[in-house]
Amino acid sequence: MSATFDTQLPLPTAEQASQVRVPTRRRYLMCAPQYFTVEYSINPWMDPEQPVDTGLALAQWTALKEVYQQLGHTVETITPEPGLPDMVFAANSGTVIDGVVLGSRFRAEQRAAEAEHFRRWFLRNGYRDVVMPTSINEAEGDFTWTGTVLLAGTGFRTDPGAHAEAQEVLGVPVVSLNLVDPRYYHLDTALFVLDDQSDRPQVCYFPGAFSAGSQKVLRRLFPDAVIATEADAACLGLNGVSDGHNVVLPLEATALGGALAERGYQPVYVDISELRKSGGGPKCCTMELRG
To answer: Closest Cα to residue 88, out of 48, 135, 35, 39?
Structure first.
């Protein structure tokens, strides 16, 4: 399986062409879906009655990992553990900013053991400032670093108290956002950052996933955001990963890819159909190691 780089893109306007998108090399942590299956349901995407092809999930994950490497990024891996089928969704097990690690504490007991395996990985790999949270905190599932502020989701998984804890541990300003649609149970299913390297970070989000007040906050913070459609969100198109130029998206998110191309970004499409059976996409599989 290979990713698709969209070369049939509309020509940008003169204003858009002047906005040169510059990729930055990233370092990611991923976990192979060796034991992936859907044997319980903790979000609306999961149906234990639906057949799951673990081999296909592994092939899709491998293709995603290879895309990152082809784009020049470094990918670290953690050994998957039997009995933890959702460990592939590495983003939920840590938030790393400037080398400081805030671990996770899962709401669902089925995933609770994942946090300790990731904590040990950080310590084995030279991280010394590792803090495990006291509040329910599903890490980059609900914490999104924009380069200036940490956007923090709540409503279904992460407790509001975890937002204050993240600010204390990571030493960055936090903006709370309330999620209201259970299909978009984590912030990273409804919003992702396109550019975190400038004074004016750019994001993409689906307004319908957020409360009215949170929508107002997002409009105030990001007046030039890319606004996704219901169809974009429904294929987990908002679970994307951007390096400032290349944007990795689910194969079905072509409308969103077109909108991003008009802003000067390069869509890179990957097939995550099997992993989506557990409510995950590219970002869910990808924890960013910053600093």
So the answer is: 35
Give the Cα separation of 56 and 54 in Å (integer). 5
Superfamily of domain 24-288: L-arginine/glycine Amidinotransferase; Chain A (3.75.10.10)
Q: Backbone phi, then psi, for 137, in 5-degree steps? A: -150, 110
Known catalytic residues are 186, 284
Both tokens of residue 249?
């998206």
Which H or E run includes 30? strand 27-31
How many Cβ atoms are within 10 Å of 196's Cβ, its own excluded? Answer: 19
Straight-line distance from the first to the last Cα atom of the chain, in angstroms, rounded to the nearest whole number: 31
Q: Are 204 and 226 in contact (CB under 8 A)?
A: yes
Structure tokens at 113: 């053991």
Q: Is the dihedral of CA 133, 122, 86, 72 positive or negative?
A: positive
Q: Would you say the pTM of this structure is higher than 0.90?
A: yes
- 3-class secondary-structure state, position 139: helix
**Burial status of residue 126 (CB atoms within 10 A of its CB: 0-12, 13-18, 19 or more):** exposed
Segment (H or E) for 102: strand 100-102
For 109-120, write each residue's pLDDT tens digit.
999 999 999 999
The pLDDT tens digits for 218-234 are 999 999 999 999 999 99
Residue-range domain boundaries for the chain: 24-288
Contacts of 168 (CB under 8 A, 6+ apart): none
Would you call 192 helix, strand, or coil by DSSP?
A: strand
